[in-house]
Amino acid sequence: MIQKREAQDLPSALNQLHELKAQFQGKTPAVFLDYDGCLTPIVQRPEMAILSDEMRTALHELAAVTKVAVVSGRDRKNVEDLVKLDNLYFAGSHGFDITGPGGMASEPGGAKAALPALDKADGILQEKLQHVAGSLVERKRYAIAVHFRNVAEDQVQEVRKAVDEVLDAMPELKIGYGKKIYELKPNIDWHKGKAVMWLMQELGLNDDNYIPLYIGDDITDEDAFAELQGQGIGILVGEHDDQTAATYRLESVEEVRVFLQDLTDTIKQKSNG
Ligand SMILES: O=P(O)(O)OC[C@H]1O[C@H](O[C@H]2O[C@H](CO)[C@@H](O)[C@H](O)[C@H]2O)[C@H](O)[C@@H](O)[C@@H]1O
């Protein structure tokens, strides 16, 4: 059974570094990272979430010593363009669309059949919401995020109504939640947690040498935290509206960067004997 706790009750990954690393049991962590709210702070609009040079350097150095994947709700190509590193793996649209070094490319969740429904839903939502000031319909290959961060509070219900109307007419799609967004996703049992386990298998990491470690900040990251309970480490950044299946926490994007740098040093020391 999945154990859940309040975010505030989790120990800090930085304050409890020694205890956290003891859980590696001599294995190397394979590192899976969310993008928004984890590698970049949450900002008013998606295109404003720019990766800092310092975080890019931390990711590049970590990927030189272990496997690193960004597992995002964003469109895969979009998050690749934001990160701009070719030694990482990228899982976009919540894990439906995966690429990696050496031309690796796969769509393991089997979402292709949902593309016509996503195209249709995108068109309907663009039209229905064009008069709702501040709303934004963000199309990803295998998901649509309907943003209401910049919508007046008394109009958010209108956004939700439009989303529900589309979903009622399209059984191929289901709703997902995030920070000030409603998401329309393929109605398939696939999520970030399954994408992480798929990558572990595909990259040959399911052995005594590697342990999965996942860092994320949002509701969709809970699928990964739940999947890793008992077989890996989940770290929540900040908090969201619900309890969490993560076992440690970090307070901010800056703490994520410091933690990643420490991981790189730890892995380097281990390989130097
Ligand atoms: O899984 P992630 O990489 O964390 O992606 C989740 C969603 O992130 C983006 O939206 C969120 O970040 C925006 C920029 O900070 C913010 O304005 C928005 O309110 C947040 O929900 C992205 O735009 C979505 O497509 C992702 O699903």
TrEMBL record:
Q: Which cofactor does it need?
A: Mg(2+)
Q: What class of enzyme is it?
A: hydrolase
Which Gene Ontology molecular function entries are recorded, alphabetically?
metal ion binding; trehalose-phosphatase activity
- By its UniProt entry, which SUPFAM superfamilies does this protein fall under? HAD-like
Q: In which pathway does it act?
A: Glycan biosynthesis; trehalose biosynthesis
- Its EC number(s): 3.1.3.12
What keywords appear on the UniProt entry?
Answer: Hydrolase, Magnesium, Metal-binding
The record's annotation in InterPro entries points to: HAD-like_sf, HAD-SF_hydro_IIB, HAD_sf, OTSB-like, Trehalose_PPase
What does this protein's UniProt record list under function?
Removes the phosphate from trehalose 6-phosphate to produce free trehalose.
For this chain, the family text in UniProt reads: Belongs to the trehalose phosphatase family.
Name the chain's protein.
Answer: Trehalose 6-phosphate phosphatase
Taxonomic lineage from the root: Bacteria, Pseudomonadati, Bacteroidota, Cytophagia, Cytophagales
